[in-house]
Amino acid sequence: MTELLQVEQLAVAGIVQPLSFSLKAGRPLTLLGETGSGKSLIAQAIMGNLPAALRGRGQVWLRGEELTALDVAARRRLWGRELAMLPQEPWLALDPTMKAGEQVAEGYRYVAGADWVQARSQAAQDLTRLGLGHAIHWLPGQLSGGMMQRLAFAAASTGGANIVIADEPTKGLDATSRDQVTGLLRQVAQGGGGLLTITHDIAVARQLGGDVMIVRNGEVLESGPAEQVLRAPTSDYGRALLAAEPAAWPALAPLKAGGPVLRVEGLTKARGDRLLFQDLSFELHGGEVMAVVGPSGCGKSTLGSLCLGLLEPDAGTVWRDAALPRLRYQKLYQDPPAAFAPYCSLGQSLRDVVRLHKKDWAEVERLLPQLGLSRGLLARRPQEVSGGELQRLAILRILLLDPVLLFADEPTSRLDLVTQQQTIKLLTDLARDRGCALLLVSHEAELVSKVADRTLQFTSSGVLQG
């Protein structure tokens, strides 16, 4: 097979140990590993857009040309045309003031060189193929996390690059959308292109096939054909990943429900001319775990915002215990960067919460190791840590406020399997031990079957309760 990209002794000082690999035409390569292991930094070092505070070493060759010897402007001219990257946080890569169709059309116009008529026509076709035809005139803020991921995929694909680097391309997507995006990525390789995928999702690695490298703490633990590595890993961590798949989890402790903390009656909500749900009613009790499942963009996140009073319903009522401070009704956001001040250190953000709400900093120190977080992360800004690390810090901040209801919107979509299991245990312990009601959005059917007392299933014909 033709080698399209060669990486030699690539390292990021203090984080990623030197590693070498080649990307071959038609042969997918997947970096699989724990959250915060440096996988995304490898992709950024290849592209030449590492954060300013970090320095890369080693060499990257593209069809015989050394990219690491080029200046910044020369490397950027390759973006979209030779190398395309699907970002881990799609909402940061999208213009919040530009409609979805125009964001994709702009790529065809300015990168691929099409005229505006062709560009808009092709953009409409791409978005329709990705299930976003109805959202062509929507702004990113009107899209769910999964919908934004698909929009970013469409926008990044407009320049015709022969090498695609996909950083967590399926996080936050339901199984159908995940399989669809994975299928689109496979088409890159099947068409003779190079595909480097970064993921913590074993199902994605299995579907893509090709070769797999398992990464932990910035070091490659093992590599080889996907079928071999994912069937019988040789490293302890590789075996731990397989053992942490939700199907192997123990069942949740029996429910001892407390009093009601939320009551929804006759709730109806539409987005534009699209009805999300109608006449929805349910009650949620302390200690209870209710899962909310359904395809991307069906209204799951909207339901949570209605329950917390962040949005107004078109009809119906939401009751919350008026004797409790509203602060104890909390939301864990699907995109954690949206929940942190971008120019403050993470430690400062936590200290602000401790000071403002008269909490004890010792609780922060106690929770850090429970969530698998090092104290050194507190000196960094949100954009200087992985999405998974930022999500766990968001969970820590919420735990400081002793919530009675937590709406957790895809809380593990950025986490590897081992960290996912630890995080879900922390959230379900919060429910069972502290009596906090948990409204959990997830696309993982196996996970839901293990932890949910009840389920709200969003379907095309309505919402089913079970």
Automatic annotation (TrEMBL):
- Any one GO CC term of the record: plasma membrane
Cross-referenced InterPro entries, in alphabetical order? AAA+_ATPase (IPR003593), ABC_Ni/Peptide_Import (IPR050388), ABC_transporter-like_ATP-bd (IPR003439), ABC_transporter-like_CS (IPR017871), P-loop_NTPase (IPR027417)
Q: For the ABC transporter domain, which residue ranges apply? A: 1-242, 262-466
Describe its membrane topology. Answer: Peripheral membrane protein
The reply on keyword Transport is yes
Read off the SUPFAM superfamilies from this record: P-loop containing nucleoside triphosphate hydrolases
Tell me which domain of life the UniProt entry assigns to the organism this sequence originates from.
Answer: Bacteria
Q: Where in the cell is it found?
A: Cell inner membrane
One GO MF term, please?
ATP hydrolysis activity
Q: Does the keyword tRNA-binding apply?
A: no
Where is it predominantly found? membrane
- Enumerate the Pfam families for this protein: ABC_tran (PF00005)
Question: Which keywords does UniProt give here?
Answer: ATP-binding, Cell membrane, Membrane, Nucleotide-binding, Transport
**Which PANTHER family does the record associate with it?**
D,D-DIPEPTIDE TRANSPORT ATP-BINDING PROTEIN DDPD-RELATED (PTHR43297:SF7), OLIGOPEPTIDE TRANSPORT ATP-BINDING PROTEIN APPD (PTHR43297)
What protein family does this chain belong to? Belongs to the ABC transporter superfamily.
Q: Can you say what this protein is called? A: ABC transporter ATP-binding protein
